[in-house]
Amino acid sequence: MRTRLVRVLAFVLGICLSLAWLCLSVDTLGTTPSLMQKLMERTAPPSYTGLPEAEYEGMCQMITGYLAGSADVFQYTFVGEGGEYLCFQTHEQAHMADVYALFVLARTVLLASVLLAAILIPILFGMKTQRKSTQVLRGFRDSAIGVLALVALLGILGAVDFDRFFTGFHQVMFTNNLWLLNPRTDLLIRLMPTDFFVTYAALWLGIFLLEPLAVLLLTLCRLRQGKRHN
């Protein structure tokens, strides 16, 4: 019974570590202005957005600063030939307030995952049972397999019909339709078209997968070594 408990606790600890890495990578990528500027210039050039090229750096600093919590208002102002321009309308600001709430949620989950991991580690390694190291490795292995299986499932759904997957994601994450922006009238969606999010998602996925893949490979190697010694 205690042997099984060790494996379960190791599994939960593995999930906590994956959740922490997930939230940390989302927060880091979403609040890095140089990265956002590079992707925005590639997927949403001035000829499409209508925003002067010289304003991209300031725009990305404002957006990432807002998501990081260092800016209270989501708005960017610049001076053009026709005078001073306010870039975002009220409904765009309201949508970004919802996005900011998701980043706050990610930071909360990150903190909760780290705290739970900090509680589990001394409990897990303080338990005395036969073949504890093997059960710990199996628990970590199972958590990595579970995370990778879930990511694979979501990846398949996204690959089959990305637009439907993208729409479903927004319907789950948001409680309103403010995310349904119009490219003709809303600068926000012109700055962040579908290709922008696809590139961001691919980059995030590559970084996130490093953790469960590393855990899986390390645990499999250690378990194989343990069998050889036995």
Could you characterize the architecture of this molecule?
- The model has no long low-confidence stretch (mean pLDDT 92).
- This protein starts with a helix and ends with a helix.
- The longest helix is centred in the middle third of the chain and has 37 residues, at 90-126.
- It has one domain (2-229).
- The protein has 9 helices and 2 strands; from the N terminus they run ααααββααααα.
- The protein has 230 residues and is mainly alpha-helical.
- Strand 1 (77-80) and strand 2 (83-86) form a beta hairpin.
- Strands 1-2 form a two-stranded antiparallel ribbon.
- Helix content is 77%, strand content 3%.
Main sheet properties: 2 strands, antiparallel
Average of per-residue pLDDT values: 92
H-E order = HHHHEEHHHHH
Percent range for β-strand residues: under 5%
Number of strands: 2
Taking all Cα atoms into account, the compactness measure Rg is 22 Å
Query: Uncertain segments of ≥5 residues (pLDDT<50)?
Result: none
**Percentage of residues assigned to helices:** over 70%
- Alpha-carbon distance between the two ends: 23 Å
* Shape assignment: elongated
Per DSSP, the total helix count is: 9
List the quaternary state of the chains: single chain
Strand order of the largest sheet: 1-2
Q: Which structural class do you get from the secondary structure elements?
A: mainly alpha
Q: State the domain count.
A: 1
